[in-house]
Design goal:
The structure is a single chain. With 99 residues, the protein is mainly alpha-helical. The chain contains five helices and two strands; from the N terminus they run αβααβαα. The chain has a two-stranded antiparallel ribbon.
């Protein structure tokens, strides 16, 4: 059985450090995304959409007229948080077209 060379050991250590850093960054991103998403109430208002999307109210009005944009039917100008975040993930290009 061959013993690893110093270079192989250093390569392995380097890769492990990179892997650990990648895991840490992914964890921090997940925590950050979760905090951003779940600090909003379950039902969003226009003010929330303005803050989440960093767009003006006129753009929000155009965006929310889109039939695919999630909204509550019983209450006007109210939007289900989780469905909105899912819609954003799936429609980023569409949002850019409204701006």
């Amino acid at each position: 059985m061959r013993t690893p060379t110093l270079l192989q050991e250093l390569d392995e250590q380097y890769l492990m450090q990179k892997f650990e850093l990648l895991i840490q960054q992914a964890y921090e991103k997940g925590v950050d995304d979760g905090q951003k998403r779940f600090t909003y109430p379950p039902v969003l208002k226009r003010e929330h959409l303005k803050k989440i999307l960093s767009i003006e109210y006129s753009t929000i009005d155009k965006l929310t007229r889109d039939p695919s944009f999630p909204r509550l039917t019983a209450i006007s100008a109210r939007y289900p948080r989780d469905a909105v975040f899912k819609w954003i993930e799936e429609n980023t290009a569409k949002i850019e077209n409204y701006s």
